[in-house]
Specification:
The chain has about 750 residues and is α/β, with parallel strands linked by helices. It is built from 27 helices and 29 strands. The protein has 5 domains: about 160 residues, 3-Layer(aba) Sandwich (Rossmann fold), CATH 3.40.50.300; about 210 residues, Rossmann fold (3-Layer(aba) Sandwich); about 60 residues, Arc Repressor Mutant, subunit A, CATH 1.10.10; about 55 residues, no CATH class; about 190 residues, Gyrase A, domain 2, CATH 3.30.1360. Helix 4 runs parallel beside helix 5 and helix 26 packs antiparallel against helix 27. About 50% of the residues are buried.
Length: about 750
């Protein structure tokens, strides 16, 4: 069956047609081609001609920019040939400087295998040496010296760079000859990970300078709203931006599918995903289904197989799950079978959103909005490579953003890609990275200020006071007992807690995640299994659990307090005063509920110390005029509470983030703002990661989208599709939907 034939089948079948909220046809386009740039060596041009390869326009543009010495960020879709865009310039350099080296950094190990194979094939075809080698945690110790001394292009990941920089003397030859740093899938470097990565890159450049090199950057990324700002924040360099893709595409049909469609029997988003995947496989369409968790990946694959066992039992073994946690051999075999067409359906986490080579697919199913428009198009782009038709189906969850898009397909398809946010000034991240830098080379504030910013002296003074660095005639040097790189995490700011079952670590968490998900008495879900948490070891940050299913699940109750430490900026708006500043957040986890099917069967106390951290918050201090938007019969506290939830729910609509990256607090009378009503929305990480600051600058736009989302929800008093929050510590009480709408409308200046 063809893609159009399958679409016709859905429309004609009453079982499925009632859930289709919208169908969008996205026309394909022809390739935009360019001749091979003159800067390429004759051998490369001969190879292109022999293989009948004509470069796309963006490839030629990137090659010419790199040859001109420019740093480049290439923002084009999946499978648009970004790898060739940096490989051909590297081949060119290797003709001029035979021992020139390059460093390619990928966010996931799996990507390096595909890339190495591509490079080896190009090497063989052209007869020109690239000498690519993978260097990561899986590289055998006895192979490492040879790779460091002989490889032309080393493929690795940020975590490995973090570990090898203290051993840079072993890399002196490689770093002294380094001409290019390639950052593939650069859009993955955002939030805490991106902020840490930005300073890690500066540590790397500092080492390169020590050995006399100043490499160029080549970044490949999904489409972003702010590629120039993002690239500059990430690398410290101004970039040439290439965004117009010359790669051809076929027609793409995009279905918005709503299992919670009004007047139709609601159905589970996961069971619908499984059934539609089975239908696609039964129709002969090779398909990929994305889910949001490891557990659902496994369950959806089982359910899809069950559907096929009843209708097409000969095809049920052609569906499998793919996720992190599998052995490398298992994942590689699945990738090979998918590429070869043996596997007809794969259920995956976002692990396959990245550019792993899995060949051409016919259809993609997304189980819920993946969080960003960037991920939507990355996932949809896995189907219909080259000029073949493709199908993408987004099956909505019952949350505010998913349902908003179901009601407003025009917003979904016209929506620009989000801003990627990196906070290069987070004091907690900077302090840890400066500590690592001091273990690599003595830190001299007068010269290293350009790498680590104006606050470098304050950070060094604090590290000296804590006995971690010493001020010497050579500069500040690391004096700790453990390796500095072991003390500093790239993906977390707070201390890491481990969950252990029979002396085996099954999971790592930060302290706030531990309080929410793994407190004493909690039922912890891990890879589809349930574990009962028994005790905590506070001194060694260990959590002890046993595999057990008690038949219920747990949900923690907590209270939040916010104290304003410093106002950084403010402006008057119609509803009052909008502020941005530093705050101290305290979270008290005081109890938890045992639930069966959303029904509370008991409430239990918790005795945990409050968690406090400093972060950045945006808040609005409502004036009397601002509160006049509420009628006399509205619940003030419920109106503010609903608006707080709605603002947090719609933040991912504007910025690359997850609602769990943010926290909030509302009060009808806050002592922090002289008894005025207030709504706080803050970054959920120590020091902040730039989200609240972005919200400050787009506040009216954020309020407008939140108001529209709540107002158009068809519920009467509030529901998971508008103002309920899954992370609310007060069990979503009180809430006033109509009052929330009135407040948001006033804030957005819509009345």
């Amino acid at each position: 069956m063809s893609v159009s034939g399958f679409l016709e089948f859905l429309l004609e079948n009453r079982r499925y047609s009632g859930y289709i909220a919208h169908i969008q046809r996205i026309p394909g386009k022809d390739a935009a081609l360019s001749p091979a740039p003159d800067v390429l060596p004759a051998r490369v041009k001969d190879w292109l001609e022999k293989e009948n390869i004509t470069l796309y326009s963006h490839q030629a543009e990137a090659i010419e920019a790199i040859a001109a010495g420019e740093d480049v960020i290439l923002c084009t879709p999946t499978a648009s040939g970004k790898t060739l865009s940096f490989l051909l310039p590297f081949l060119t350099i290797r003709q001029e400087v035979r021992d020139a080296t390059a460093l390619a950094i990928y966010p996931a190990k799996a990507l390096t295998r595909d890339q190495q194979k591509t490079m080896q094939e190009l090497e063989k075809a052209t007869g020109m040496q690239i000498l690519p080698a993978i260097y990561d945690g899986d590289t055998p110790q006895h192979d490492r010296p040879l790779i460091r001394s002989q490889a032309g292009l080393i493929l690795t990941n940020p975590y490995e760079i973090h570990q090898i920089l203290p051993w840079h003397r072993q890399w002196s030859s490689f770093f002294s000859r380094l001409r290019y740093i390639i950052l593939d899938e650069a859009h993955q470097y955002r939030g805490v990970f991106g902020s840490s990565m930005s300073v890690l890159i500066r540590r790397l450049l500092r080492i390169c300078e020590h050995y006399g090199s100043s490499p160029q950057f080549f970044l490949s990324s999904a489409t972003l709203a702010n590629p120039a700002d993002f690239a500059r924040d990430l690398t410290g360099r101004n970039m040439t931006i290439i965004e117009r893709s010359g790669a051809p595409t076929g027609d793409r049909f995009f279905i918005l599918y709503n299992p919670y469609q009004e007047m139709v029997q609601p159905r589970s988003v996961y069971s619908e995903s499984a059934e539609i995947l089975s239908l696609l496989v039964e129709a002969g369409l090779q398909s990929l289904c994305f889910t949001g968790s490891r557990r659902m990946t496994e369950l959806v694959s089982v359910w899809a197989k069950n559907h096929l066992s009843r209708k097409s039992p000969d095809k049920m073994n052609s569906i499998a799950a793919y996720r992190a946690g599998y052995l490398p051999k298992e994942r590689q075999e699945l990738e090979r079978n998918l590429k070869a067409g043996v596997m007809r359906g794969i259920v995956s986490t976002n692990a396959l959103e990245l550019g792993i080579d899995i060949g051409s697919l016919d259809a993609v199913v997304m189980t819920g909005y993946p969080g960003t428009m960037m991920s939507v198009w990355q996932q949809a782009g896995r189907a219909g490579r080259s000029v073949s038709d493709a199908l993408a189906i987004l099956i909505a969850m019952q949350n505010p953003l998913d349902q908003f898009f179901m009601r407003h397909p025009e917003e979904f398809f016209a929506r620009p890609h989000e801003h990627a946010i990196i906070d290069t000034k987070n004091p907690y991240i900077l302090s840890g990275q400066i500590l690592c830098a001091a273990s690599e080379l003595p830190v001299r504030p007068e010269s290293d200020i350009r790498w680590f910013g104006n606050g470098i002296t304050n950070h060094l003074d604090a590290l000296v006071e804590n006995g971690l660095v010493a001020d010497t005639p050579r500069g500040y040097v690391y004096t700790g007992r453990k390796r500095a790189s072991e003390l500093v995490s790239l993906s977390q700011i707070s201390e890491v807690w481990t969950v252990e079952v029979r002396n085996r670590v099954i999971e790592t968490l930060d302290i706030r995640q531990a309080c929410r998900e793994a407190h004493p008495g909690a039922v912890l879900l891990h890879q589809g299994e349930r574990y009962m948490v028994s005790t905590w070891d506070f001194d060694r940050h260990r959590i002890f659990a046993s595999q057990e299913d008690p038949g219920y699940y747990t949900k923690v109750n907590h209270q939040t307090g916010v104290q304003i430490r410093e106002r950084l900026m403010s402006r008057e708006i119609r509803s009052g005063t909008l502020c941005l500043g530093r705050v101290e957040v305290s979270e008290l986890y005081h109890g938890y509920r045992r639930l069966i099917d959303e029904r509370t069967i008991s409430t239990e106390p918790l005795s945990l110390e409050p968690i406090t951290f400093e972060t950045i918050s945006v808040w609005i201090e409502f004036s009397q005029e601002g509160m006049s938007a509420l009628s006399a019969d509205r619940d003030v506290g419920g109106s503010l509470h609903g608006a707080e939830h709605a603002l947090i729910a719609m933040m991912p609509y504007h910025v690359l983030c997850d609602r769990w990256d943010l926290g909030g607090l509302s009060s009808a009378s806050s002592a922090e703002v002289r008894g005025k009503p207030v709504i706080f929305v803050y970054d959920g990480y120590e020091g902040g990661i730039g989200l609240a600051e972005r919200a400050y600058h787009i506040y009216e736009e954020l309020c407008e989208s939140a108001e529209k989302m709540v107002r158009e929800c068809r519920c009467k008093d509030g529901c998971p599709a508008c103002i309920y929050s899954p992370k609310c510590g007060n069990d979503n009480q009180p809430l006033d939907k109509k009052g929330c709408i009135a407040l948001l409308k006033h804030c957005a200046d819509l009345t």
